[in-house]
Please model this.
Amino acid sequence: MKFRAAILVELNKPLVIEEIELASHLEYGQVLVKVICSGICGSQIGEIEGVKGPDKYLPHLLGHEGGGIVVDVGPGVKKVKASDHVVMHWRKGHGVDAPTPKYKWGDQTVNAGYVTTFNEYAVVSENRVTSIPKEVDFESAALMGCAILTGVGVVNNDAQIKVGQSVVIFGMGGLGLNIAQAATLVSAHPIIGIDLFDDKLEFARKFGLTQVINAAKENDISSVVKSYVGEGGADVVIDTTGNTRVIEQAYALTHHAGKTILVGVPKLNHTISIYSLPLHFNKTLKGSFGGNAMPDEDIPRYLKLLKIGKIQSKDFVSHHMPLSQINEAISLLQNGKALGRVMIDVAKL
Model:
């Protein structure tokens, strides 16, 4: 079986869209999914740009948030069956931790992780899919794979924000927006968003921000933030950018008994310099690993909130583009031209 996929062949180069071929059979714990929709997360931008350093797995597939339909299952799979609609997520859920697949591309082998979504069909590990009701649209399903799952998890699990606590969020991309709406759900106040682009900040207001700050125009961000939260700093400051200078600023803006949560991943060998003494008392500096989400428990809960309008999904998507235009979609994100998520319509129903 052959199908189209966007392949990362070389770092900092456009993805190559080619036909690849499935292995002859599914291995223990593997699930074959027809991918309908996929979001593009900042993590994929980081992979393309080599943020973590040399990539020994090239060429390989990408994408870790998707919505699709199960086509077939391998031996040992009990969690899903053919025709089930599923969320495809990178956080590990229940089920078999299956071997990662390899695909044929002419005489070459294309590697893949436990889940990939920039391809029309994907062999996915059982513990990276969660079945959902068929009335849930695939766009919302894709966002549940990371943007919503991680964003709400950062608020609930990592930051454990309490009612009335002040929150500052650096970076108003897909994760920043979902963190904002999750902070609204727990009645945080104020909720301050910081970014470099006015259009992104204005777009972000409808997800619960009470104040916005354009860091490209404001000379003294610290004074502006403290005018909203008090001289002591914010209760919770969350960085989604991975920029080390921003991380230092986020830490400095955090109250001496507050929490700094790092969601964005810095580039390899980029370091931060902080005054660490407060960490020996009540201040917290914490890295987030996907919001410590538990997909099989969290996704059904979040779908209930989506159904009654407590959280948004479709409003996060600023662009729909076909798989053939995925490089243009990536460029939009790299240049700050996308508001929220860019959704790739991978396959037609």
